[in-house]
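Reply to dn_fold:

You asked what the input looked like. This is it:
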Amino acid sequence: MANSRYVLDSNVFIEAAKQYYAFDLAPGFWKSLVAYAKSGEVISIDRVKQELDRVKDGVTTWADSDFREAFASTDETAVVQVYGRIVNWAQRQTRYSSSARAEFAQVAGMAGRLCPGQSMYRRDPRIAVQP
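and this is what came back:
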């Protein structure tokens, strides 16, 4: 992961906990996310934290206790500008249905945290973002 910064979407956490890396079976996965966050290689955003808070499960508890500092604020002018660029790009992609583009616009708010050298990771094979 050296020299890269990854922005994680909510489904990265939720699917990992439910399908692949349950807290009791794979604690190393969750510890590694914290370590990568502390080194600045992995972040998420406040909107993802808000989504996790609505679920109120083990992911919420873990995020509150171990990952809280890794959720960056999206209340910045630069974030809004990047979000606009990403949504405009998505709207021009005619290979996707209009409903898929609308859904992307809703979740792309988390991609607005992208800056040069950052990549968004969203556990959704239909969507890949290149800044």
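Helices lie at 10-20, 27-38, 46-55, 58-67, 77-91, 98-107.
Hope that clears it up.
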